[in-house]
Design brief:
heterotrimer; A alpha+beta; B alpha+beta; C alpha/beta; B: alpha+beta; six-stranded mixed beta sheet; 19 helices; 21 strands; globular; C: alpha/beta; TIM Barrel; eight-stranded mixed beta sheet; 5 helices; 8 strands
Chain lengths: 122, 552, 176
Amino acid sequence: MTEAVITANSLLEGDVVFWAGGGWVEALADAERFDDASALDAALQTAKGQVTTVVDAYAIDIIDERGQPVPTSYRERIRALGPTTHLDHGKQALGGPSIEAIAAHAGAGVRSSGRLGLIRRK
Amino acid sequence: MYRYDAIDAALLADRATEFRGQVARRLSGELSEDHFKPLRLMNGLYLQLHAYMLRVAIPYGVLSADQLRRLAFIARRFDKGFGHFTTRTNIQFNWIKLADAPDILDSLAEVGLHAIQTSGNCIRNTTADPYAGATAEEIDDPRVWSEAIRQWSTFHPEFTYLPRKFKIAVTGAAKDRTAAKVHDIGLKLRRSRDGELGFEVMVGGGMGRTPYLGQTIREHLPARHLLSYLTAILRTYNRLGRRDNSYKARIKILVASLGAEAFGRAVEAEWAELDQASIDLPDLELARIRADFNDVAFQDLAPVSVALNAAKAADPSLARFVRNNVAAHKVAGYGIVNISLKAPGDVPGDCTADQMDAIADLADAYGAGEIRVTHAQNLVLPHVKLDDVAALHAGLKEIGLATANIDLASDIIACPGLDFCALANARAIPIAQAIAARFADPATAESVGELKIKISGCINACGDHHVGHIGILGVDKKGEEYYQLTLGGSGAEDASLGDVLGPALSADRVAPSVDQLVDVYLRERSPGERFLDTYRRVGLNPFKAAVYAEAV
Amino acid sequence: MPKLFKIEDDQVVARDDPFQTLADDEAPSAGSGAVILSFARFQREGEAWLSQGVRVGVRLEPDQPVEGLAYDLPRLALVALAFPKFRDGRAYSAASLLRERYKFAGEVRAVGDVLRDQALLMLRCGFDAFEPADGATVDDWSKALHRFRHVYQAAADRRQPAFAERAAASGIGAPA
């Protein structure tokens, strides 16, 4: 299998979070990366059981981009970054190498002038 | 506007208390997500891509200045300083925390606002003509009836768990600004031959995967029987609507499968057996509601404003604003002023907290303290003295909301799309911005004239793309954002569903294609024809040829 | 977990269930004076049960219209309406019809995915008995049933709707 991480939304805040060794982190860069299906499945079952911490835990495919995890699906890239319409909202506002890797893989960022960056699945 | 009395206020407060308890039980784990989700949806709380989204109801699109100020407060205190007005005339806040939701509902309840039944498989916000009570061409004020429906449908015990969501629109004028024909129930006020006030009742309209235009099951329903007749429709739907497949659960599917005539007969049979007198509002209550809506003390003014005419002559941007954004009022010397939330480059329908506060002040100063929300995601000050329009325009300019583009090509309806919505296949907002940029020059937009472009990020059609003159639907094609264009839809009284133009286009092809479509229109149009009219006359082929002639 | 909640004198109380719910192939226990049968079983055996003087209740699934019992209702002690999932709202209409249309005076019982967050809705539609599925207490249910001080619309419970309250308060007279 390709690599995967587990993601969910925090129950209390609604934030996008990622599974890391029994708990949840805010940044995709800190997420636990799985390359073994049964380990992924076991972790997912545990994650789904944390019903007072998160809502709707599920696994997503990632690829490695210069050491950084990048979701293959553009929907998940938007979840990991934030809305393309407000570049100062969401996790993308923090910047850093992980955010840059996701955004770079997605193509040019969207600016409110209307120019589009296409998000392509590899 | 309707004033909440002690009973209305108590209902909001009790609901907020109920929800606070349900949130606490969810956080403690006593309530599972499966049991909690419908309850939070019925209080307007969605879980979207980045955060919870709270959809606050704006019943039939009417707000007081103080209510708008409270929305600004919510945006600042609990969100990122802005809100988004929707095609069902509600407002959405995109960055809400579940933990804050009970406090937000308490704060809203203080000014008679709530998020009741703005989601879930229940009766949603009833929408009405945004020009209600201001336009000369209305048979009767649809807000009176919308308020009656609001009360009847709120916490209706029999209709809280329907097969699917249920949307009602009420229009009272010849021009339909509510898209009533694509609602589950569309109600059109009318008079019978002997002058009796009543409704034409249309059912089974809707968009989404399988769009339908509503069909008339009752040409004339005496107005006083509105609520009992709605009860008959809802009961028939609740009993017979499909529960096995949520994509086939709307009333439009039931009406299509039974046939409108058979469905209508079933409704009439149920209605005949109902205890109508216990359901229909007594005259006293209707009069009480109506009195609240007759609350504006209009002055005796000359029909023509010398001051405004002089100001227009001196300021072409004001003249353009009046041409496009100001509609005729039933009272001499007044105008209905539209505030566009579609400045090219902005997110369509978004409004910052500062802008909301400023609009509230302008409404107090020039607009009898009342604001309306339109199905096109714009705002309206329905009662503005023509003498005040210049000052209002100046005030709007200061907050970047004086765009003179109502119903023009840059006045685009767009859903939040994949930037925010967990259901979306593609983004809608950047597409809208790219198109609007091409019509940013006001003279260009005016020369093209009325062109209603509507964009949905997925087949749920919250952007109403099926009824766009140009409709744009985002689809996922092998992991990329592609867009299917339709032409010739209309949500107005001449309702029609759009025709597919051709294969879906990649994102960067959409705005140039819209340009090509407009070029065809400008080439082919006869005098006085809107884009929609030309399309209906010449058909799909010239437009299709233009867009698909070149290799991508 | 309580077996049965009933509404008595506007209060919710826990009671032992006098009815025995029988599966389609199940024989009753001795001395069973009250049974609840599926609609199919009632159609086959209802007359026999009633002629023995047994109190008979019929359970309807959401896709079984109450009209199917119209002829027999005067002789039935109870109708049980099923909520396979709490989100299936057909039983609300069924209960409303039993009370409003057929003037059924026996027990209308909610069975299945019956939860306190829907208690007031069920009560207003004419249910007066509940087999709760959520482990909630009588007190929890009581709080849920009294959560709202007013109601907007008329329903099977005949509780005074807001517009009637307003007319009464204004002293102008009863609504038309």
